[in-house]
UniProtKB/TrEMBL annotation, chains A, B, C, D, E, F:
This is Ribonuclease PH. Phosphorolytic 3'-5' exoribonuclease that plays an important role in tRNA 3'-end maturation. Removes nucleotide residues following the 3'-CCA terminus of tRNAs; can also add nucleotides to the ends of RNA molecules by using nucleoside diphosphates as substrates, but this may not be physiologically important. Probably plays a role in initiation of 16S rRNA degradation (leading to ribosome degradation) during starvation. Keywords: Nucleotidyltransferase, RNA-binding, rRNA processing, Transferase, tRNA processing, tRNA-binding. Its EC number is 2.7.7.56. The lineage of its organism: Bacteria, Pseudomonadati, Pseudomonadota, Alphaproteobacteria, Rhodobacterales. The keyword Cell membrane does not apply. The gene is rph. Belongs to the RNase PH family. CDD domains: RNase_PH_bact. Homohexameric ring arranged as a trimer of dimers. Residues 10-139, 156-220 form the Exoribonuclease phosphorolytic domain.
Length: 236, 236, 236, 236, 236, 236
């Protein structure tokens, strides 16, 4: 049995509240159970230097966690610099979202997705990708409404979910108590139509078989369908 | 006339929602109009090294702003380090809150107040102090309920408000459009009973008279009364 | 009684020696008792990027303390980076001096005031402002003599002094023994004609009343008159 | 056809030269074609603070690239700090190697694996893991020979290989010309007996199907067998 | 007797293997006994900003040591930043090599010499200069063969060797066991024709006479002749 | 002819004013012509960690330059970190002074010599060593007077002077106009009795012969005698 009482293939309750801050071009507060992430999209006319005059757009992401988003307070990254883990996560979010973007259609501009974890209970990078796409969708809508972008550069939604082996069982959408016990876990980033963008499976002090990997992918597909539904409802 | 249509001596609408995150020992989301700050209090058994075995408690504060809390996106401080402005603000918050604490009664422990600006529209340091005190109050309540602290170390509420000369008129609680125009502004930190803790009046490209200073202090006292009322209601 | 034997409203002996270094466009060594600060003014044809082609001048300041300016040796900031306190002080010095400058008359150039504390005995930020203005005055004189600046951009002297409540009494110009004991102290920056530029009153583990604030302001005005006189004599 | 003329399922020539530096407790120079990585293992009696007195051992890794290991010279990380990519890679190497270690049998000591890329032609992180295991094996042999460790803490070899979709075809062990073109690639870390430790599949500006993923895994298993053979020969 | 059994005026065995990496425009692996340094030369069309449009070339150097080049593992400089010692050494290497360069003949381009110590046994800075010149020679040959440079900008070889007082005796080319005991040692950088470029003699907890200095210079001249021979053979 | 009109073998006017700051255990302001350096000695009961319980003392040095000590203002090192040049200089000062110290007689304590350049006109590192020794002498005197140190740990004065080839002539004690033109220059650190501690000769875009080196040493010995005399007078 899972600590939360959920079924093995059951997501946590999802909620995606949009337009939660007045300055960002797109924003949402995504809640996957007790994991809450504020995602904002900021449009900038300037692209990174190496991309100038390419005519191509760029989507990038930054990730942070408030010091007391966690059970015990962590040091503030503004004081000690970004950890390797933080940089790894924000590179993943940016790469994942870009997989769903037609950079020609976007035109030469940059959209920065900020994902700030207000409260953490496992799965923050997946929630950031799922919520980040909604913020991106809303910002792109604004560009299209203003006529700055003509054909929709967002090809397909991008969503992510974690799965892992907990107490010997494959489970969907690990929360913190599961995540801290699981010897094997993975993050699966997928498109709305079920294509894969990123698969990150990792064992700490353990190993896994190809069969187990297959079971986790099955679970991830189940989760993906529900997440994409929630994204579409939120961004409608 | 003020851009918001407020009276000269009118605060923005105040809202203080408590217990907004499940991990912190005390927390609130304070809204002064469109300025929204998440304040959390974290209790730690350890005090800073120079205070060890003194028997005295310590209250300290850290301050941050999400990159898109502002009209245009700012660089993330975790990437570039804390600015001088940020350090100045968090030193002010800590000093202000300590003025209302009996450090003997608190006992040898540290409470860290994190003030993270979710959305900014002027007056973020004042909102941080006012909301920070509520988070502190709730965390101290928890210590007292648990019997870890016997006599109440919080002597009196601590609240803060800004005033300034806008379009030649003294006004209370400046919002961003006012703040960016005002040649003179000040932050006033006061106790519940009206004693002063900190007065910071500052002119940029201008000067002010003692009379004007007196008028701003009068306004600040008006504001303080309302803020303390809101603190007491929230923390009740 | 004050540790130094001074009257409550008595400044420390002031001395301002000018042209103490051969390279700077303006310089002085200001001594407020045992607090000695070397102030230099450096003229640069370049202004900060955001000000380019504005036609406006800029005055900025930097502050430092030699490692053994203090009773016990402090770590060198060049090794550990500028502290929050240092940044806060240099922002204050710059803001204060700019309040006395007509930026149009100055023309598009930058003057940097470096204030380096050779020996510290309390009140270093106030001495830096008072001495910094003299260095600025001398550098501007040079610009005017050379015909690079036509009408005098320095409207009025800018001087600063600290006051505080020491042993229950309001005292003027705190030295280190007083400063380290005072529960309440303040820094007052004023123009030659008595207008206020910056008021920073602060209590650590204490509070103060409006009456006490008024008494400190009265003292500050007394001190200001003497300081401005010394500035004028020095820069004559 | 692949730029190198290799078959789709053909590894580059492997060479693992051991004991290449006289100071390290274990070392090898691994060459996967034109990718050359120097791997050293350093034994330290001290473990990280949080592990002290746990009786458990620790294996960690650091990764670097000489500035001119690449086609055009890169900035030296000692001057600009470790990039997010570098930190991500060294975390992967450490995690991968630990999956093959019995930390109780290792005893309370730390082994640091340094992987420094002398020449780069794609696949440096995989070569680092494969070569890093050989350095680890040699260092552990030394501990066992000295009687400091009794039962072998290395359960099974750990090796890694990349695969990707190049010109529409699944290929094994991408070199730089392939890597820079491939829209999808992955790194597969496996044990000697074929269990999975880490799977990292990633698309940049593309997506992939589960079938493609399966094909890449098939290739990776082929590669793994050859790599483990080379490891065993080298460390014999 | 010297720990290595060498004569007082005997160099360690020298080996200079060229073209050891495929990307660099010039490269060698120099071995002075157990001290092994990889030297690469990278040509860049861009010179430092302050030299732009001067028509003059520039040669600069960077130096590093792999963490386990030494008896016990050192911290990685990419993690903690370059030490003062590292910066001092790389400034010396650059200055030394520039003394042998006709910057007009080189033309407006920069050549960066990277010297990375693979294994250390004393004398790494001297080996870096001697090997660095070979890498520079090979890169310049490439420029001349391509017709990018017409007249040879390398006037004369540049080589370096250390000498010191070990156990009361002047000795040539100190290895680590000698270096860590010697109270006086020096580095001598010379041209192929025996002119001096840099002399750095240094005593730690000791002093030396002019006579001793003369004896060390005599030894250095002996060593220089052999080193330049080896350079010429290698770069032929 | 030298720009200053001095003879080839003539030092600039020397002045060493002692006890110039009230907090330091020893201090002086040394002036070599227009080069002015404030040197302070700070005694600390704590030695660096690796020296603890060795019974040996330690002398170390730090060096800095005020931003406007130079013709044009330099960036403040507290803002950008210590340059390689600064670190090289302070390592030289510390090493030089330690050569004149009996570390057993000093006892387990650390003396830090801070050398801060108030005004620069060439030769700042030499002036720092010469003045630094005076500050050290005064601090040691205080220890001996207090009975904390019994036998004098200062064996012999330590002084330093620069020489160089200017306009084809060997000259003593280069000032800035000479230093910026000289193709060859050197710093010579010597004891009161004429023993050598450190010789640093360096050519930038030039070379020198052994004869020239000998001439510079002759000049340095002349200078050393005068400097040591001035040190003795000052510290008497």
């Amino acid at each position: 049995m899972r600590p939360s009482g959920r079924e093995l293939n059951e997501l946590r309750p999802i909620s995606i509240e949009t337009n939660v801050t007045r300055h960002a071009e797109g924003s949402c507060l995504i809640k996957m159970g007790d994991t809450h992430v504020l995602c904002t999209a900021s449009i900038d006319a300037k692209v990174p230097p190496f991309m100038k005059n390419s005519g191509l757009g760029w989507v990038t992401a930054e990730y942070g966690m408030l010091p007391r988003a966690t059970h015990t307070r962590m040091n503030r990254e503004a004081k000690r610099g970004q950890s390797g883990r933080t940089q790894e996560i924000q590179r993943l979010i940016g790469r994942s979202l870009r997989a769903g973007v037609d950079r020609v259609a976007l035109g030469e501009r940059q959209i920065t997705i900020d994902c700030d974890v207000i409260q953490a209970d496992g799965g923050t990078r997946c929630a950031s990708i799922t919520g980040g796409w909604v913020a991106l969708r809303l910002a792109v809508n604004k560009l299209m409404k203003a006529g700055d972008v003509i054909s929709d550069p967002l090809l397909d939604p991008v969503a992510a979910v974690s799965c892992g082996i907990y107490a010997g069982q494959p489970v969907l959408d690990l929360d913190y108590p599961e995540d801290s016990e699981a010897g094997v876990d993975g993050n699966f980033v997928m498109t709305g139509s079920g294509r894969l963008i990123e698969v990150q499976m990792s064992a700490e002090g353990a190993t896994f078989s190809r069969d187990q990997m297959s079971q986790l992918l099955d679970l991830a597909e189940l989760g993906r369908a529900k997440l994409v539904e929630a994204q579409k409802t939120a961004a409608a």
